[in-house]
Design a protein that fits this description.
alpha/beta; Arc Repressor Mutant, subunit A; D-Maltodextrin-Binding Protein, domain 2; five-stranded mixed β-sheet; 9 helices; 42% helix; 24% strand; rod-shaped; LysR_HTH_N; transcription regulation
C-alpha cells in the first residue's frame, strides 16, 4: 500500500521558494500565487510536521529554523529525484534507447525479425530488443499481460483494447511440389487444385483464414495433413503430399527435405492478410515503439518493391 503524506508537493514547493527568498511576498510573486496561499501552505506544513520551519520577523522576512534547514535539504533531494524521473520518462518518449520487448506471430518471425533487428541495431545502437514468438492469441496475450510493448501480427480480427497499425499486406499463394503439372505455369486457380490433397498450416487464426478462402471459392479441401510449423508444411508439399496455401514467400524453393516447393500466384479473387504493429490502445507510444513500427514499415515496403 502506498504511503500517504500529510502534505502535498505543492505545499513543499512553496516552502522551498520561501526558503530561497526568505520572504513570503517575494515567494508568492515568483510562484504567481496569492501571499495568503503561501502563508497557508507553510502553516499547514508546520502543523503536519509539528515543528516551526521559519522564524517570522515582522517586516524583516524569514529565518530558517533547524527543522526548516533539514526539510530544505531533503526537499531539494526529493525535487531533484522527481525532475530526474520526469526527464527520464520524457526521454523515453523522445529518444530511442532502453529496452523493448516485441512479440511476433511465429510464421512471420523468420521473415521479419532478423532483418528488423539488424536495422534497429544499426540505426539505434542504444536500443535493446527482446522478442517473443507465438501464435496470434499468444502475442495479444503478451500485450495484455505487459510482457511485450508491441506485437507484429497478421490482422485476423479486431480485439477490444488493441490498436493495429497496418504496415503492409500480403496475398496468399498456392504451394505445390516441383513436379506438379501446374508448377511451371506460375499461376493457377484453386479450382484446379481441388482434387489434390490439402496440407493445412494449422494455427488457430491461420486455419480459419485458409479454410475460409477455399469455402469462398466453393472448394471442399481434401484435408490430408496439417502442421503448426510453416517449414513442415513446405516440406510436406515438396515431397508430394499435397498442396497448401501460405502468405509469406521465402526467397528459395528448397525445403529441409532437399526437395522444392513452388509458389503459384492465385488467379481467383482472394483476401490478402494485413500485417500490423499492435499495441494496447490506452498506451501512449514510446520512441522505442515508434522506431520499431517505422523500421518495419520501411522493411516491408522495400521487400514488396524488390525485383
Amino acid at each position: 500500500m502506498a504511503d500517504r503524506f500529510p502534505f502535498t508537493l505543492t505545499q513543499l514547493s512553496y516552502f522551498v521558494e520561501c526558503a530561497r527568498t526568505l520572504n513570503m511576498t517575494a515567494a508568492s510573486q515568483e510562484l504567481h500565487v496569492a501571499q495568503s496561499a503561501v502563508s497557508t501552505a507553510i502553516t499547514h506544513l508546520e502543523r503536519a510536521l509539528g515543528s516551526a520551519l521559519f522564524i517570522r520577523q515582522h517586516s524583516k522576512g524569514l529565518i530558517l529554523t533547524s527543522a526548516g534547514e533539514t526539510l530544505l535539504r531533503d526537499a531539494r533531494g526529493i525535487f531533484d529525484a522527481l525532475n530526474d524521473t520526469v526527464e527520464s520518462i520524457r526521454a523515453d518518449q523522445e529518444e530511442v534507447r532502453g529496452t523493448i520487448t516485441v512479440a511476433c506471430f511465429s510464421t512471420l518471425a523468420p521473415f521479419v525479425l532478423p532483418l528488423l533487428l539488424g536495422r534497429l541495431q544499426r540505426r539505434h545502437p542504444e536500443l535493446e530488443v527482446a522478442t517473443i514468438e507465438s501464435d496470434h492469441e499468444g502475442t495479444v496475450a503478451a500485450l495484455r499481460g505487459g510482457r511485450a510493448e508491441v506485437a507484429i501480427n497478421y490482422v485476423f480480427t479486431e480485439e477490444e483494447g488493441i490498436e493495429h497499425r497496418v504496415v503492409g499486406e500480403f496475398p496468399p499463394h498456392a504451394l505445390v511440389h516441383a513436379d506438379h503439372p501446374l508448377a511451371g505455369r506460375g499461376r493457377a486457380s484453386l479450382l484446379e487444385l481441388a482434387d489434390d490433397s490439402f496440407v493445412l498450416l494449422d494455427l488457430p487464426s491461420s486455419r480459419d483464414y485458409f479454410l475460409g478462402i477455399l469455402r469462398q471459392l466453393g472448394v471442399t479441401p481434401r484435408l490430408r495433413y496439417r502442421s503448426s510449423s510453416y517449414e513442415t508444411v513446405r516440406s510436406m508439399v515438396a515431397t508430394g503430399l499435397g498442396y497448401s496455401l501460405l502468405n509469406q514467400r521465402p526467397r528459395i524453393e528448397d525445403t529441409y527435405t532437399g526437395e522444392q516447393a513452388v509458389a503459384l500466384e492465385i488467379t481467383d479473387p482472394v483476401p490478402s492478410l494485413r500485417i500490423a504493429v499492435s499495441r494496447l490502445r490506452q498506451a501512449h507510444p514510446t520512441a522505442r515503439a515508434s522506431a520499431v513500427e517505422r523500421e518495419l514499415r520501411e522493411l516491408i515496403a522495400e521487400a514488396q518493391t524488390a525485383p
